[in-house]
Amino acid sequence: MAEKKFSELTAKGATIADTDIVAISESAGGGTYTSKSVTGANIKALVTDANLTTTDVTTNNVSTSKHGFAPKAPNDATQFLDGTGAYDTVKDSDLSTSDITTNNVSTTKHGFAPKLPNDATKFLDGTGNYSTPASGGLTKFTEAEATTSPNNTVYVDSLTAAGSTTNVDIAIVPKGTGALLADIPDNASTGGNKRGTYAVDWQIDRNAATKVASGNYSAILGGNNNTASGSNSAVLGGGGNVASGLVSVAAGEGSTANGYCGMALGYYVTAGNYSIASGQSSSASGSSAAFGNFNSATSNSFAACQGNSATGQYSVAMGANNTANGTSSVALGSGVSTQSVNTRYVFGNGVNVTGDCQQSVFPLYKRTTDATATTLTIGGGAASTNNQVILSNQSAYRFKGTIIGKKSGTTDIASWDIDGLIVRGANAASTVLNVSNVTLVQNTPAWGTPTLALIS
User: Fold this and answer.
1) What is the CATH number of domain 181-359?
2) How is the chain split into domains, by residue range?
3) What is the number of other CB atoms lying within 10 angstroms of the CB of residue 34?
4) Span 301-333, pLDDT tens digits
């Protein structure tokens, strides 16, 4: 073929064949060249991604009109190359779903939720399917909400037993040694401290965390600010009551049962061991009882009505403002006092001061083995300040009595009636026996006549 200029050659088609040959001049140095050839296969072998070098030039980037390079990455993992050739975030509005299940969630992969079954009773289960849950919850109760008057402001939600029998009991049963309570303990006044073992606490209002049924087997049935801290103790209701004694009971307002088996019922009353106090501001201790207002009873004693004090062991004070402070003494009426004399029974009505208008009974006794004159005392013991007829300062007694004597082992007996008048001034030294009469009733054994005398 004759030599031609490049411009005179016929244009090659778009495809280069492996057998095509291209003539080239290879430099041989010194300004000389050697003619050589390159095949189409040689050229194709040189065009690989490894031989490509890219830059920040965007001329050949992909667009909506031509293929090309992907744009430079924006260094933002939330953006993706969209159909316009730009990077953008993927939004849920960009998604288009269909009824194809290929990419639905399964037990082996994440995916789309299955198409809804249009059935409100079915729910997506753990297998990726919609199913109806098995029946559960409260099946033996009917729940309801009352919203009409009088419950239109504070609604009432209720659970009603649904058993088939005419009468149905309801039991709320704690597990193990758990308590039964109306609040969740939170160590604050809202829920209170933890309750005791097997305790029952229905109180829902308190101003301190400690005001709960904290004793084992204790109970608070209602009210507010009550405390049942003793084991087996109970507060029946009211406000601010404390049952701290073992097996104690309190109710009312501000009452305290702090003794074993104590019971305090009323307004600020206090009951100690084996004692009962009721009314207002009354107290009982030491196996005693106080009923009414402002009464006090100690040591197996009893006080009732108002303002009475029974502090002598086995004493009784009833009425108003009476004092029974001698052992086995009794004070009845108003404003009377046994004046610390044992086994003295007093009744009357004090006018200005306690004991200024009263009547007393003194059971005096003595056992003797000889004919020596002997002083009679309450209980037969040695004379003391608490077993004789002792006047208080500035007082007077009109006394009457009977003396009976019997010789043991025989039927010998004698009796005398006595009466008299005794007065005391500012002190014991001023005491005067004004009248002392002894009248014989019978004296068959011919014993000596008893005498009445003051004893210093």
Assistant:
1) 2.150.10
2) 181-359, 364-443
3) 10
4) 999 999 999 999 999 999 999 999 999 999 999
